[in-house]
Amino acid sequence: MNVKITRNAAKVIQTELDKEENKELLLRVLVTHAHGDHAHYGLDLDKPGANDVVVETDKGISVIVQKDQPLLDGVKIDYLYGDQEGFMIINPSKGNHGDH
Question: What's the domain range around 81?
Answer without folding.
Answer: 3-94
